[in-house]
């Protein structure tokens, strides 16, 4: 447990600094770097449905949460995208939900 905590305290700030969540037109762009591998995704808002947050006690100490977004793959199945180590996660979740709501009502 202690080793995991020490490693997380050392690696999480780097991950948090490389994480990018940005709205680009009708897309949510998620860019992150894990273990030297950069992942860059654009997800259309029409596929996003449920925005939630998750936080363990250890994450709370570090001031971060996980943003979980449920997407629809097709009519019968859903998939959850988890974005760990997000600062101000509740604020971001609410902002994304509001942007999604505005897009649906225009």
Approximate strand percentage = 35-45%
Which sheet architecture does the biggest sheet show? 3 strands, antiparallel
Derived from helix and strand composition plus strand pairing, the structural class reads: alpha+beta
Q: What share of residues is helical?
A: 25-40%
Which overall shape is indicated by the principal axes computed on the Cα atoms? Answer: globular
pLDDT averaged residue by residue: 82
Q: How many helices in DSSP terms?
A: 3
The end-to-end span amounts to 49 Å
| Radius of gyration, in angstroms, nearest whole number | 15 Å
Characterize the structure shown.
The protein has 106 residues and is of the alpha+beta class. 37% of the residues lie in helices and 42% in strands. The protein contains three helices and six strands; from the N terminus they run H-E-E-E-E-H-E-E-H. The protein has helices at residues 2-18, 57-62, 89-104; strands at 20-24, 27-34, 37-44, 48-54, 65-72, 78-86. It has a three-stranded antiparallel beta sheet. Strands 4-5-6 form a three-stranded antiparallel beta sheet. Strand 5 and strand 6 (78-86) form a beta hairpin. Residues 1-7 have low confidence and may be disordered.
